Each structure stands twice: as C-alpha cells, then as structure tokens.
Amino acid sequence: MAEFLLRWLVNLSLLFSPFFLVQGWWLCRTIPRLPEADGPVRGRVPGRAPGFHILLIGESTAAGVGAASQKEALAGQLAKASAERAGCEVFWQVLGRNGLTARDACTLVAGSRVFFSPDVVVLVLGVNDVVRMRSASVWRKDLRALISLLRRRWEAVPVVLAGVPPVGLFPALPQPLREILGLRGRMLDAVSRSLAEKSSGVSHAAGPVGVHPEPEFFCSDGFHPSPVGYAIWGRYLAEVLVPEICMDQ
C-alpha cells in the first residue's frame, strides 16, 4: 500500500513538471560542481585478524564528492567502521563515477579491473535515477541486471543495497522540487527494499534515509555528504554489512 501511494503521488507531481524543469535548470546553474575525492581508490584498514574484501560501486557519493580524500569519503569510512565492528582487517576498492545511474553501473563494472574477489559488494545508487525521472519498473530492472552481472562475475557474492539517499532533505534543493524529488527517492528506495526481501543474498541498508541529518552532514554544496556525513553513513552500512559477511564465512 505504501509503495502504491508513493507511486500515485509521484504521478500526480508530473502535472507540475514544466515548473520543476525551470527549477532544475536554475539548480544546475547554481550548485557548485565539486571534484571527486582524491587519492587511491583501494586500500587496507589493518586489524587483529584476517578479514574480508569490500567492493563499493556507485555514483558521486561512492566517488567521494564532498570529501578531500577517499579515506574521508564513504569507501574509507565504511572500511574503517567495518574493521572496528568486526575486529579484523578490511581491504576495500571503489568503482565510482559522478552522474552514474544503475544502468551505467553495469557498463562500469564490465569495463573495470577489480583487484580482489570481493566478500561483499555495496551498491550506492539512486540520486541520478531520481533526477532523471526513472520509473519504479525501470529502476527494478536495472538493479536486477546489475546484481545478475555481479553474480556472474563473483558467483554468490552478497550484495548490500544502500538506501536511496534522502533527496527530500538536501538543503541545496528548492521547494517544491525538493519535496517531489524526495517522493521519487522514497519510491525507488521502496523498490530496493522489496527487491532485497525477495532476493537471496541481497540486503537493504537504510542508513541515514529517513533520519533528518544535522547541518554538518552536508558539504558546502548542500547536496553531497561531508566527511562527517560519510562517517555517519559508513557506520550505518557497516551495521548491515558485517553480520552479512560473518554469516557467510
């Protein structure tokens, strides 16, 4: 029922699409375009015992926009939180690109070199699919295709779907565009949650979705997390990721 209501509200919002296009045009001209995080896209967090390997795939948040280095960005923060929670070393690698959609991620994975066999893959996607007005059915289809690709490459690797970021809370977005995109984000996140519930070896990690973040959660553009925000998000993801790995090993 909740997913149906979200879809109905989203469809209703399309009546105001010309106004939203104007707001979107204004937004593209005013939000500063920040670079992706600097530094190596793979690394190791030392620990007391042999550990596991995390592969993070996704959009600008995976690429670390809003942080100076990958260690301060989501990949490094997630690896650190996971190592602390599991009490072992963690190897990590990130495949991230600004503007990436779920469909684009298939191409990125197919053409990228991964330096280990991952024990878990974390997918951080959704904002670009929201902005590009992807429907629920297209989002579900693209996620399934990406998961199938990962399973063909690494057999039964566990997959964690990070919750679609809470677009409706982004300070950079004006109203009513913020509210409408927030509804679309919640709709896609409901699809992710449903897909995880019906798929073996796939989990959904809500993270900060639905939690009103403090101002310091965002970086200067009001759109991407700051290092503080990435640390909070990394801890949320680690709460789901570590038990999944420990049960599988």
Can you characterise this structure?
- By secondary structure, the protein is of the alpha/beta class.
- It has one domain (2-248): 3-Layer(aba) Sandwich (Rossmann fold), CATH 3.40.50.1110.
- 48% of the residues lie in helices and 12% in strands.
- The protein has nine helices and six strands; from the N terminus they run H-H-E-E-H-H-E-H-E-H-H-E-H-E-H.
- The chain has a six-stranded mixed beta sheet with strand order 1-3-2-4-5-6, with helices on both faces.
- Helix 1 packs antiparallel against helix 8 (177-198), helix 4 (74-86) crosses helix 9 and helix 5 (102-110) runs parallel beside helix 7 (136-154).
- The protein is globular.
Query: What would you call the structural class?
Result: alpha/beta
- Helix percentage: 40-55%
Radius of gyration: 17 Å
**SSE pattern:** HHEEHHEHEHHEHEH
Q: Helical element count?
A: 9
Shape: globular
By CATH, the architecture is named: 3-Layer(aba) Sandwich
Q: Which fold name is given in CATH as the topology?
A: Rossmann fold
Percent of residues in β-strands = 5-15%
Beta-strand segment tally = 6
The level 1 CATH classification is Alpha Beta
Count of spatially separate domains: 1
pLDDT averaged residue by residue: 85
Q: How are the strands ordered across the major sheet? A: 1-3-2-4-5-6
Largest sheet: 6 strands, mixed
Q: Identify low-pLDDT runs.
A: 1-16
Query: What is the fourth-level CATH superfamily?
Result: SGNH hydrolase
From the N-terminal CA to the C-terminal CA, the straight-line distance is: 37 Å
Keywords: Hydrolase, Membrane, Transmembrane, Transmembrane helix
Organism: Desulfobotulus pelophilus
Pfam family, one: Lipase_GDSL_2
Protein name: SGNH/GDSL hydrolase family protein
